[in-house]
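Archive maintenance. Older records in this collection stored only the sequence; we are now back-filling the structure field for every entry so that each record is complete. The fields below show one back-filled record exactly as it appears after the update. Entries are processed alphabetically, and Peptidyl-prolyl cis-trans isomerase is next in the queue.

ARCHIVE ENTRY
Title: Peptidyl-prolyl cis-trans isomerase
Organism field: Crossiella cryophila
Length field: 119
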Amino acid sequence: MTKPEIDFQGGPPPTELVVADLAVGEGAEAAPGATVEVHYVGVEFETGEEFDSSWNRGETIEFPLRNLIQGWQQGIPGMKVGGRRQLTVPPELAYGPAGAGHRLSGKTLVFVIDLVGTR
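Back-filled structure field:
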């Protein structure tokens, strides 16, 4: 797989988590609370500006879902290894409302996540 391009969406940001499978995997399915290995890219919904990407670091990252933002905890389970999923995450499921102390607080975020492994 190659680094995904995230298309600028336009319009008002969604108020609920939006999950869209871009490619359905054939491998093991990620369960709630699993540890996942992913490649991902994240952009701000309003500007399309990239704020983070494992692709830019040249390696996947592995972590327990319980340590991640709510949008990932809700949006990754059910994904299968080899799949690519886009999550559009409102602030309430990301880094909280504006002023919550994180540089992405108050922002709707869009991630494209490739599930490389799960355990």
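Update note: The longest strand covers residues 35-44. Strands lie at 18-23, 35-44, 50-53, 61-64, 84-89, 109-118.
Entry marked complete.
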